[in-house]
Amino acid sequence: MIRHPLRTYAAGLVLAVLVALAPRPVAAGVIIVANPSVEADSIGIDTLKDYYLGNTTSWADGSSIRTALPAAGPVLTEFLKTCVKKTPSHFGLLWKKAVFTGTGTPPAEFATDADLLEFVANTPGAIGFVAAGTPVRGVKILPVK
Amino acid sequence: MRHRPWTAVCAALALATAGAAEAATVAVHGTVSQGYLRSSEYNYLTPDTRQGTFAFNEGIINFSGQIDGRTRVGLQFLGRDFGPVGNGEVIVDWAFGDYRWRDSLGFRVGKVKVPLGLYNKTRDVDAVRTSILLPQSVYTETFRSIATAIQGFGVYGNLPLGSGSVDYEACAGTIEMGSSRFLSDVLSGLVGAAPMLSYTVEDRIGSSVQVIWNTPAEGLRVGGTWSSLDVAAVGTFALGAPTPWAINIDAKARSAVVLSADYMRGPAVLAAEYTRYEVDVDLTNIPFPDGMGGLIPVSAGRTDRRGGYYGQGSYRVDPRLELGAYYSVFHPDWRDRDGVDSGLGHRAWQKDLALTVRVDLTANWILKLEGHFLDGTGDVLPELNPGGMDARTWRMFAAKSTFNF
Fold first, then answer.
1. B-contacting residues in A 9-48 (Cβ below 8 Å)
2. CA B269/CA B267 separation, integer angstroms
3. Which residues have a Cβ under 8 Å from the Cβ of B229 and sit 6 or more positions away?
4. Structural domain of B330
5. Domain assignment present for A1
6. Which distant-in-sequence residues (6+ apart) come within 8 Å of A26 by Cβ?
7. Measuring CA to CA, which residue among B149, B96, B139 is closest to residue B118?
8. Parent domain of A70
9. Which of B114, B150, B153, B245 is the least buried, fewest Cβ under 10 Å from its Cβ?
């Protein structure tokens, strides 16, 4: 049986739309989650970098941004490398500098995805990231623009 | 040490306000370090470096609280011992309120750290760098106590540009000197061999402006700092007069300029800085024989045009091991860098090749070992080396272990 070319194109178009609408991992295997109070529906990669480096500390409505991240592991390394352009050790040093000069509060660290997601779900203004495919509930997924 | 009343008030207010914030938003961090220094030839930085000294440690604890999305308060206590400096006396290192109106404009009021080059604000925090000693060409210990913090106000912000962004910071206020023995040593050296019986440092005005361009090239920053620091002191010397003679000294580090660049890519960090500054020293009420057996007061002054530069690199081999090196060059008189015109010889420069191994034993515990291979004695104080300074080349070993949380 020969498929009509139009059906093939339509199937391709539908697939492309689905891919475009699906939450896009910021890096391979990482998705961004936020507290439902966050008004944004998507986020830019440079904006994420500013949030995690402390260059931007409040959302557009003036409320505090509360960043969260895993304490260690491949998801952290991948996110920092792809989005923040830092190694975990250099990222840690930057925040130690901020802590000991009184100029910033480092992201909250969590040992497990469940703890991180609970923090994001219960903390207004919170944003974090977990491995793609992690079951999430009570948080909002922010596609990366 | 003299305590300024409003330093204590500011610290108390910061603590009280942080305490008033929700307990979950008050953060406590600290660091404790112990070091060791030993030099092959000279008492450099401390009076006991040649025989080896453990008088090289710091302790820091800070409290900070985020009041709301724009406002934070905090304070940090610092106790340090570096040869004769500090002796473990605890001081308020910084204590300020910070209102971030926009990311492009924020304000700080209280005792704030002075932006000067890439590392001045964190020079007390061993854990945030690779080397034990910062390159002395730019971060000289001689003027550390006047260049660390001022009581006053500051403005700061981040301005997005079409390509990259600009971080800026400026501050102005009163310098609190604390109990700097180094300054008295420097003043003694300026007056001569007469012993100093006492000295009092008067607080003076300081200001600093820093602009850093975060270039579109990922990880590359370039910038500059301009600072002006002005301190005055009164030293009382035994000069053979019937009563001790008080000499007034006004020292100004004028128009200090630091040009900075660093580049961070993956596990590697490169940095280079260049500085020039003038130190004006005016002495008044110097006793001078009047030819009739008495003394008359006269005045004198001198200007030192200092300068230096360094280049450094570090590489994180793995999460626990980092290697670093820098080459630092300092000239106490930039106009006579080879020491020929002044006859200073090797006192006209100090070139320092430093090699560092940093081991992160745990996430909170660091051990560093560092070797210095030096040529010249331009930053060595004669007052700490009464036996003379003949050797041109010498070495120094430093070790330090730091715990931080």
1. none
2. 7
3. B143, B146, B147, B175, B204, B206, B252, B253, B256
4. 5-404
5. no
6. A32, A45, A48, A79, A82, A83, A129, A144
7. B139
8. 24-142
9. B153
Instruction: Check: CB of residue A69 under 8 Å from CB of residue A110.
Output: yes
Domain presence at residue A104: yes
What CATH number should be reported for the domain holding residue A130? 3.40.190.10
Chain A interface, best mutation among B26, B32, B103, by max A CB count within 10 A: B103
Q: Which chain A residues touch B66 with a CB distance below 8 Å? A: 64, 105
DSSP-assigned letter for residue A4: P
Q: Which of B172, B180, B182, B252 is nearest to B210 (CA)?
A: B172
Q: Residue B188's domain is classified under what CATH number?
A: 2.40.160.10
A60 near B CB under 8 A: no
| pLDDT per residue rounded down to tens, chain B (405 residues) | 444 445 545 555 555 554 544 444 688 999 999 999 999 999 999 999 999 999 999 999 999 988 877 889 999 999 988 877 777 788 899 999 999 998 899 999 999 999 999 999 999 899 999 999 999 999 988 777 778 889 999 999 999 888 889 999 999 999 876 555 555 665 666 566 667 777 777 767 899 999 999 999 989 999 999 998 887 777 777 766 567 777 777 777 777 899 999 999 989 999 999 999 988 878 788 777 778 877 788 888 888 889 999 999 999 999 899 999 999 999 999 988 888 888 889 999 999 999 999 999 998 999 999 999 999 999 998 888 988 899 999 999 999 999 999
Residue B321 forms contact with A (CB below 8 Å): no
Q: Which residues of B touch A93 (CB under 8 A)?
A: 128-129
Report d(CA B402, CA B85) in Å as an integer. Answer: 19
What distances in angstroms separate CA B104 from CA A45, B34, B298, one per listed residue?
20, 39, 51
Residue A16 lies in a domain: no
AA letter at B252: K
CB contact under 8 A, A96 and B98: no
Which residues of A are less than 8 Å from B321 in CB distance?
none
Q: How many residues does chain B have?
A: 405
Tell if the CB–CB gap between B94 and A101 is shorter than 8 Å: yes
